[in-house]
Structures are given as structure tokens and as C-alpha cells.
Write a structure and sequence with these properties.
Helix content: under 10%
CATH architecture of the largest domain: 7 Propeller
RCC repeats: 1-53, 103-154, 251-299, 302-351
Number of strands: 28
CATH superfamily of the largest domain: Regulator of chromosome condensation 1/beta-lactamase-inhibitor protein II
Number of helices: 0
Protein name: Secretion-regulating guanine nucleotide exchange factor
Keywords: Guanine-nucleotide releasing factor, Repeat
Largest sheet: 5 strands, antiparallel
Radius of gyration: 19 Å
CATH topology of the largest domain: Methylamine Dehydrogenase, Chain H
Distance between the termini: 13 Å
Strand order of the largest sheet: 11-12-13-15-14
Domain RCC1-like: 1-346
CATH class of the largest domain: Mainly Beta
GO molecular function: guanyl-nucleotide exchange factor activity
Shape: globular
Order of helices and strands: EEEEEEEEEEEEEEEEEEEEEEEEEEEE
Structural class: mainly beta
């Protein structure tokens, strides 16, 4: 496992904290085998890992119990949280979520905006199962600054927390269940994927089209034909704080939204339309941090690229200047998984 970028809370798992780590460094003394990892989540200042044994590990910022350890003290090395059998882990700014193979949803961390939720508690320090309306099973969970978004296996979206950023023209129904108010977004088609920024959502419908909902100050929620140039060919959505993107079946990444730090990887030009990420070969995986990105190309032995905001060395290039176009990270080979948070990155590699 290699990590780099902001480490102010020990989120890189090195056993110490620092403002920046400018180049990828290997994490020593991992309590899990990299080959067994199913999912990695990177948040505002914490990292979570789930493995095929069912174990959950965490390191970093824990002021709201977002590591799930039952307390609010930061930890600087990966520490066993417990056995939950999470297939998918997602981290928000100071909140976390996990989904089991049975579609059970667990949430923990900050509850200031009732995004977990747990009555009047301001935080929930242990993974807590949330019963969804009508016996729904969770397919995906993602977080904004003050909200939680759940995609169910039946193709609906349920929101928790603050939702004033949703446009008035968006139809939303309140569904009360087990003493909790869920907000059900009503769209014309079944929903197959969703990603969340600070105050916006990017939604993929069953017919292949993309719909954006929420804050559009930086055109991160711009709708129209331009977003649907690859209709029916999209295999993944992701979003940073105020920019978004998708990966196509053909291995191309398109990005749109805010570009003041080079988040779109196309230089410093405004991102009025989706920009094609210019890489040397097809992309097999990509992810967006708060204001930077990672992409893994088909040339997996040395095809790891970064771009965007780099104040904490989170692009791994050996400096702190913003990286306006995709730049290859040398020396990291056999990459299998990638993850990006708010100013830091983690990747897993196969043993030689």
C-alpha cells in the first residue's frame, strides 16, 4: 500500500502526522494483506479499508467517531475496527458508510445535520445499521458536505441530512420510516448510479443519460446534451467537491465543473463542457478527490496518473504546484486499487 498527500491526522497510516507527503510512500506494518482488500474509502482526513475476511480497519481523523472505533481520538496507524463484512466502504468529510453483501447499510461519524441519523446525537462513534423504507437494500452510499445519499437496489435515491441545495423544480417526497425522514428523489427513470459533491448529485438513469441536481455555481450540475455524449456507455460516475466525471466503457474519462486548480486535467481553461482527459492509453479506473484526481490506465505496470490541486503534495509529484494536466507517477507498478480523499491518495499494489 502506498499513500501520499495530507497527513495532518495520520490518515496515511505511517504512524505520525505531517502537513504533506510529497511523493508516494509505502505503508509499513499493515494489519491486513493488500491482496485481500475489497474496498478503500478516503474522507476529509480519515481512511477506511475492508477486506475479504470481513474486517474493517481505519486510521486518521476521528473527531466525530468517523473511524467507528467507539471513541473520538485520532489514530495514526491502521487499527482494527471490527468485523462487518462490508463489500463497499465510502467516506465523507467526517462521516462514513459501509454496505454488506446482503445490502445492509451502516453509517457512523458526524450527525450534526442528521446525516447518519441517530436522534439528537451529534456523532455516532460505531458503525450503526440503518433500516431503509419498504425493506430496501442499499447498492451505494455517498456523502456531501451535509447530506447522505443512498442508492437502493430497486433504483431509487434516498437522502438524509440537509437538502436545501436541491432545486425547487426537483420532485422530492418525504418518506417516514422508523422515526426517520428520508427524502425520496422522484425521477422519470430508474437510477443505476449516483455520485455526490459538496452540494450536488450526478445521477445516471437506466436509459443511459446523465442528470445533475443541485448547486451549479461552477457548472458542476450543468445539464443538457453535452453531458450525454457517451449515452449507454458509462460504467462509473464520481464527483469531487465541485467537479464531476464519468468513465466510459471504451476507457475514456470526461470531467466538468470547477477548474481553478486544474481539477479537470485540461489546463486552466474554464470547464463549461465535459473535457476529455488526455491520456496515453485507455483508463481502467478513476477516482476524484476533493479537488484532484487519479486515473489508472490499461498499461497497469506504470500507468498511474494524477492531476489537480496539490497544496499538500496530493498529486505525488514531489512538489506543491498544482498539476494542470495528467502526470504519470513513476515508480509505482502493479496497481490494483486507487482512492482519493480531501488532499491525499492511497493505492494498493500487487506483490512482485
Amino acid at each position: 500500500m502506498f499513500c501520499w498527500g495530507a497527513n495532518s491526522h495520520g490518515q496515511l497510516g505511517f504512524g505520525y502526522h505531517s502537513e504533506l507527503v510529497e511523493r508516494p510512500q509505502q505503508v509499513d506494518s499493515l494489519p491486513f494483506e493488500a491482496e485481500t482488500v475489497l474496498s478503500i474509502g478516503c474522507g476529509g482526513g480519515h481512511t477506511l479499508v475492508s477486506d475479504d475476511k470481513g474486517d474493517l480497519y481505519g486510521t486518521g481523523w476521528n473527531n466525530r467517531g468517523q473511524l467507528g472505533l467507539g471513541h473520538t481520538e485520532d489514530v495514526r496507524r491502521f487499527t482494527l475496527v471490527g468485523r462487518f463484512h462490508f463489500q463497499l466502504i465510502t467516506c465523507g468529510w467526517d462521516v462514513s458508510g459501509g454496505i454488506t453483501v446482503d445490502g445492509d447499510l451502516y453509517l457512523w461519524g458526524s450527525n450534526v445535520w442528521q446525516q447518519v441519523p441517530a436522534g439528537g446525537d451529534k456523532f455516532v462513534p460505531t458503525p450503526t445499521k440503518l433500516a431503509l423504507p419498504a425493506g430496501s437494500r442499499a447498492k451505494k452510499v455517498c456523502f456531501g458536505l451535509r447530506h447522505t445519499c443512498v442508492l437502493t437496489e430497486s433504483g431509487t435515491i434516498l437522502l438524509l441530512g440537509k437538502s436545501k441545495w436541491i432545486q425547487k423544480e426537483t420532485t422530492m417526497q418525504t418518506v417516514a420510516h422508523a422515526g426517520i425522514d428520508f427524502y425520496n428523489l422522484e425521477l422519470a427513470e430508474k437510477i443505476t448510479d449516483v455520485a455526490s459533491g459538496e452540494n450536488h448529485l450526478v445521477v445516471r438513469l437506466e436509459n443511459g443519460s446523465i442528470v445533475c441536481i443541485g448547486d451549479n455555481k461552477f457548472r458542476q450540475s450543468a445539464n443538457g446534451a453535452d453531458l450525454n455524449v457517451c449515452k449507454r456507455e458509462i460504467v462509473k460516475l464520481d464527483s469531487g467537491w465541485s467537479h464531476s466525471g464519468y468513465l466510459t466503457k471504451g476507457g475514456q474519462v470526461y470531467l466538468w465543473g470547477r477548474n481553478n486548480y486544474g481539477q479537470l486535467g485540461c489546463g486552466a481553461e474554464p470547464g463549461d463542457e465535459p473535457a476529455l482527459l488526455d491520456l496515453e492509453s485507455n483508463v481502467t479506473e478513476f477516482c476524484l478527490g476533493s479537488q484532484h484526481g487519479l486515473a489508472l490506465t490499461a498499461a497497469a505496470t506504470d500507468g498511474l496518473f494524477t492531476w489537480g490541486w496539490n497544496e499538500h503534495g496530493n498529486c505525488g509529484t514531489g512538489g506543491t504546484d498544482n498539476v494542470l494536466t495528467p502526470t504519470k507517477l513513476e515508480g509505482i507498478r502493479r496497481v490494483t486499487k486507487i482512492a482519493a480523499g480531501a488532499g491525499f491518495c492511497c493505492v494498493l499494489v500487487k506483490k512482485a
